[in-house]
Design goal:
oxidoreductase, Methyl-teptahyd_DH_N_sf, Rossmann fold, oxidoreductase activity, Methylene tetrahydromethanopterin dehydrogenase, alpha/beta, two-stranded parallel sheet, NAD(P)-bd_dom_sf, 41% helix, 214 residues
Length: 214
């Protein structure tokens, strides 16, 4: 429902979902779409890739783009779990706060993404790192956080950024030097307590993407 609502609100006339699509099926679906209309008619066609897995969505995005046969091309957009748009909105809101209240940017700031191994945390980490921030993904399992940080740095960031990792058990220590905190965990989980905030001497902005208490 989320993706369909977003499509309709963006002005789409119709949206046809294909579920449980395997990577091997992407090329066929894309070429069915692009060869059904003239190049001019394809201006009315777009492909949206959703799902839950960030890496799979990005892999499918690349496959879809590589399946185009110019001039038969359409717009392709990936947003697994709404994570990319959610993360982009959160980072934009943080940048606005930094500019208006501190006359600064993300450049050189220490940013930690709590619950950062999920799709929103990954996307927010990459965007912030591309903006020049020093980013660390925090997760309950350090090995998973390390794998996620490497994925963000090498694959999503094309090796042009560095995202570090840290364990949830050590987040109080990381909070001491954090300028910005992203709370990006699952709905209904408290990641940032009043006690932790009190220890964050240089914290400027904390952002939480969840509307679900606490």
């Amino acid at each position: 429902p989320f993706d369909i609502n977003m499509a309709m609100d963006a002005g789409w006339i119709s949206a046809i979902p294909y579920i449980n699509v395997e990577p091997s099926e992407v090329r066929g679906l894309v070429q069915d779409a692009i060869f059904s209309r003239s190049p001019k008619g394809l201006l009315r066609t777009a492909i949206f890739i959703g799902g839950r897995e960030t890496k799979q969505a990005m892999d499918m995005l690349k496959m879809a783009k590589n399946s185009m046969v110019p001039p038969f091309e359409v717009s392709v957009f990936a947003d697994p779990s709404g994570a990319f748009t959610t993360a982009a909105g959160m980072v934009a809101a943080v940048e606005k706060e930094l500019a208006e209240k501190f006359d600064t940017t993300l450049e050189g700031k220490n940013v930690i993404a709590l619950g950062g191994t999920g799709p929103v945390g990954q996307a927010a980490a990459v965007i912030a790192a591309q903006a020049g921030a020093n980013v660390r993904i925090i997760g309950r399992q350090l090995d998973k956080a390390e794998r996620t940080a490497e994925l963000c740095s090498e694959e999503f960031g094309d090796g042009k950024i560095t995202v570090l990792a840290g364990a949830d058990a050590d987040k109080a220590e990381y909070m001491k030097t954090a300028d910005v905190v992203f709370a990006t965990g699952a709905a209904g989980i408290e990641l940032l307590s009043t006690e932790l905030i009190a220890k964050a001497a240089q914290l400027k902005v904390a952002a939480d993407v969840n509307a679900v208490p606490p």
